[in-house]
Amino acid sequence: MRKSFLQSLGPGLLFAGAAIGVSHLVQSTRAGADFGFGLIWALLLVHLFKYPFFQFGPRYAAATGETLLDGYKKLGKGVLIVYYILNFATMFTIQAAVTIVTAGLASQLFGFTNDLVLWATILMGISLIFLVIGKYKLLDNLMKYIIVILTISTIVAVSMALFSTKDVFDVTQIIPSGTVELTFLIAFLGWMPAPLDISIWHSIWSVEKDKTTVLKTQRTAAIFDFNVGYISALFLGMCFLLLGALVMYKSGENFSNKAGIFANQLIDLYTKNLGEFSYIFIAIAAFTTMFSTTITALDASPRAMNRTTKLLFNKELKYGYWFWIIFLFIGTFLILQYFMDNMGFLVKVATILSFLTAPFYAILNYKLITGKHTPKEHRPGIYLRILSIVGILFLIGFSIWFLMSL
Question: Which of 158, 198, 250, 353 is the most exposed place for a label (fewest CB within 10 A)?
């Protein structure tokens, strides 16, 4: 029993590895730098209200042995077509956003060129090689230790920043007003802790995990595994917000929209508190975290598109997964050719798209997990249902508020 429980761990940590990327290194840090402690409410609320819809991914996979995409088809072929279009519209900007941040960190760490498009191409090429030769599992295992290293270094940095600051903490919460501030808030909520379509990735990873184990993962083990990853993402999101608030807020220094400059500023947040000796350690930890997100996205989006194609057309292409990887690679490269000089705009587009599509995924996941396609004993209880309904209203309300403010 104990052995099977330990074997069930994995997809939740992989979720954390995918989530702890741009949303944390970029958005949370910028939230603290621009608003101080004023957006803590937003960080906590978005984690609370998105929780059910992320959890429904592994819950449904454990209950049925299927991915959420299989469930979407049962809700109607039209639903799957809408997902297909939405995913196609967002996967290139999401991949470009995470890759350009990784490229910025790589340029600061290795330094042989400042050409971020070249760096992005190199990084995606290395990711592709990892996936081709089957080294993704190795990276998956290493990611767990990488997250631990990043967590420890972040806790130390935040602790030292807390002890070194002489300012009186102002924890007054802020409701942003004005188009610029509201746009940032929506972008912040869009990718914190991650876009909701990652629930689909999680269900795919859960199904794949079961293929490698003798015993099928039970619901309680799957949810516990997810909770570990989700709480880790929340904790690190709070740490990055605090670090931005303690070091950057009212310092007169603003984060650059240039990926290379931003990466240098980000690493400096740590070295100012830990000392210059820690530069390489922190830079490698941050880079490896972002690189793991880059390779995870490059793997997951093609898997989702390949599965959706099979479900829609009842035919699986022999090399469908590789077709979508190459297609994503080329599309991302073309986007970076035009947007590499403005990382902030690129991230903003991706995160806003993610937030505006969140109600769609939330409603689908809720309808699927509470309906006839999920065995009754695996359906959520009354409290999780209430939280889900409130969460859907929250996501719809913020989307309408944002659209009316444009």
Answer: 250
